[in-house]
Amino acid sequence: MVSALKSSPSPKPSSNSLAPSKMPMGGAALDLTGVPLPEETLSAAQRADAILLGAIGGYKWDKNEKHLKPETGLLQLREGLKVFANLRPATVLPQLVDSSTLKKDVAEGVDLMVVRELTGGIYFGKPRGFGTNEKGEDIGFNTEVYATHEIDRIARIAFEIARKRRGQLCSVDKANVLEASMFWRKRVTAIASEYPDVELSHMYVDNAAMQLVRYPKQFDTIVTNNIFGDILSDEASMITGSIGMLPSASLGESGPGLFEPIHGSAPDIAGQDKANPLATILSAAMLLKYGLGEANAAKRIENAVLDTLNRGFRTGDIYSAGNKLVGCKEMGEEVLKSV
Amino acid sequence: MVSALKSSPSPKPSSNSLAPSKMPMGGAALDLTGVPLPEETLSAAQRADAILLGAIGGYKWDKNEKHLKPETGLLQLREGLKVFANLRPATVLPQLVDSSTLKKDVAEGVDLMVVRELTGGIYFGKPRGFGTNEKGEDIGFNTEVYATHEIDRIARIAFEIARKRRGQLCSVDKANVLEASMFWRKRVTAIASEYPDVELSHMYVDNAAMQLVRYPKQFDTIVTNNIFGDILSDEASMITGSIGMLPSASLGESGPGLFEPIHGSAPDIAGQDKANPLATILSAAMLLKYGLGEANAAKRIENAVLDTLNRGFRTGDIYSAGNKLVGCKEMGEEVLKSV
Ligand SMILES: CC(C)[C@H](C(=O)O)[C@@H](O)C(=O)O
Ligand SMILES: CC(C)[C@H](C(=O)O)[C@@H](O)C(=O)O
Question: Most buried residue, A246, A274, B82, B228, by CB count within 10 Å?
Fold first, then answer.
């Protein structure tokens, strides 16, 4: 794995105290400072051992101009931390198989990992913006672009992960149409020679979107670009029926990793003590494992979450008959009891 | 609706005879002529009243260079016919609700239409290709670009369709990140003022990919760009469990429409008499309705298909216990009997 603190475990300035520091970003930062990612937040994050991020965004800032959107702060943070590898597991827990909208036999046993390229592609490609075309008409445009090293490094991470899982890597692209995808496929195929023990396949993105619905168990590890990863990882997480349960990790070559739940900020239920805290709690577990190399501590948290589910506690999003419906706070307390 | 022959029903040179002419494209054309879209095929198509297209592609040509791929022929045909509006219905027939991998209560009653922009965006945007970046590294790149008139015309078609359906249009984009999407959203919103009776909403593409799995019934008409439409329409069609059943229509301002099944060429079962012919048969119905203005004839075909299903005939892809498993040929014959 790539994580600053596993490869360079020497203490850093900010890690003298074990108490994590809290810094604003997104909507909170906009309200406090007028920008979605204050410089102090970015530099504190860069000095940190690992970063746990709450979900961002909300109605209040939805109509902001681009540079004042909470989402822009998130993209700046990912770019500023150079966390190019976004790991998004989508697992169906036996306890929660009923909360999937997929039939039980389709959902049961799904255990896949989407490895999404996070700091390249159309999210960051230039030129981008607004302008006029040769006919004088207004246009909006973006550039999907990938360079050799960007593909090679995400491919290597994906092969490493597949190797530790079931040894199957599916690279998703649109190489029947896009040059950026043809180049992606060429590089991924080249890197495959370094991993003869991993079975590599390729799939077009439209087909992948179908196959996730048709037969998600066929997937072990998926590697794909930034925008396809955005779409497919959300689809995959919804297939598990437990999007409120799913953590993610974003890692770079060196420097701290960024850990956050896959779900958004759910502004529709804000302040109602209804949100499922488990994705954030499991993100903290990923932080311990991938960010601080504390696999045992991570396991304790993961087990506490499973135990809490086994004891029948459910927030609304994963509730099914026969269980105990609890709010966000109570769910957190129950997990604490299980540690 | 936009279709040459509804708006200009005067007979054209090629329509003197009622017998349709057959022209090669895709893999067949590559084998015969060395190119995926021979000039004669394009010009015959341009002179036609409407075009019925078989699915294209196959292992044999998978490794061809871009300009010799069957897919390239399809893109050239769409571009050459200027069919910018791709209509992809995804409907769950009561007879087939069990073939969906979604739970019955989730799949039942799904009836949505994806209106996909088909001749713009990243599929056709320039610059595109391979090159080197400032650091001398190899790159592959594409341009996502939309101009005012491209968005306005697809938006109008989508509003027209939504108006004839349940009056709800959901425009899907990634306006929290991409300028091309911000511009898309701006134009769609502007066009909305022409359709006060249609309710317009906006959704990010990642969320749309989730919502299609979570609660597909929330959608009536979806309008989106070329690449998002490619992904979401395939996902939507798989959700119905009947991708072998779904037709599509591609229409321009004037000139003939292009009608084709949503599914691919399924090279894995080629020549085994297993394919489901219903999507192609229903594409012919769409051709009659949208391409030739023959709504009654279209209805006859649609009813014949429903009748055949009611009589229990099923190809393998939509088979469920208690029905009669038939091959492609027999299915076609049964539909003929039902007309
Ligand atoms: C909020 C948005 C910018 C972000 C993205 O598109 O990357 C989100 O959808 C995600 O997947 O983390
Ligand atoms: C074959 C391919 C070029 C095509 C596309 O991407 O448009 C297909 O997937 C489709 O959706 O019709």
Answer: B228
Which pTM does this prediction carry?
0.93
DSSP string, B20-59: PP----HHHHHHHHSSSS-HHHHHHHHHSSEEE------G
Which two three-digit tokens encode residue A59? 């109605």
- Residues of chain B contacting residue A180, judged by C-beta atoms under 8 Å apart: 140-142
Q: Is B123 an annotated catalytic residue? A: yes
Tokens of B39: 């000039």
Nearest alpha carbon to residue B114 among B239, B24, B4: B239
Nearest Cβ partner for A182 among B66, B182, B206: B66
Burial class (CB in 10 A: 0-12, 13-18, 19+), A197: exposed
Q: What angle do CA B275, B297, B110 make, to 5 degrees?
A: 60
| 3-state SS track over A281-309 | HHHHHHHHHHHHCCHHHHHHHHHHHHHHH
The burial class, CB within 10 Å (0-12 / 13-18 / 19+), for B217 is middle
Residues 217-256 of A with CB under 8 A from B: 227-228, 230-235, 237-239, 243
Judging contacts by C-beta atoms under 8 Å, the chain B residues touching residue A207 are: 234, 264
Q: For residues B281 and B259, give the distance between their C-alpha atoms in angstroms, rounded to a whole number.
A: 10
pLDDT, tens digit (0-9, with 9 covering 90-100), for B60-98? 998 899 999 999 999 999 999 999 999 999 999 999 999
Largest CA distance in chain B: 66
Beta bridge partners of A98: none
- Of A11, A73, A2, whose CA–CA distance to A40 is shortest? A73
**Residue B26 near residue B74 (C-beta atoms within 8 A):** yes
What is the tally of helices (H) and strands (E) in chain A? 13, 12
- What are the Cα distances from residue A217, in Å, to A105, A220, A230, A246, B47? 10, 8, 20, 17, 47
Ligand 1 pocket test, candidate residues A64, A68, A71, most atoms within 8 A of CB: A71
